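Pilot study result, target chain (101 residues):
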Amino acid sequence: MVTHVVAWRLKESALGNPKAENARLLREKLEALRGQIPGLLRLDVGLDFSATENSSDVVLVAQFASRADLAAYQIHPAHQAVGAFVREVVAERRLVDCEMA
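Predicted structure:
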């Protein structure tokens, strides 16, 4: 099992929206990927409520059967479309890809 974890800190405002609205939109766009991409077994998105100086605003946890499935997800047109939005609203991104038993 491959787990893909991405945490984003968003810009205070982007695309005419405040951070909270862009966080909601990002969650909506990511959740819409469910069922669209072969090999994507599970996808969960969370919005931070702690609002500390160390927290990110949005986290994605996705699971794949293999590294090949993760690689296919990365280049899938539906994922690429979400990426275009992400590049506009994100100030910082952190990533962990790992295999868990």
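One observation from the pilot: The mean pLDDT is 97. A full batch analysis is planned for the follow-on phase.
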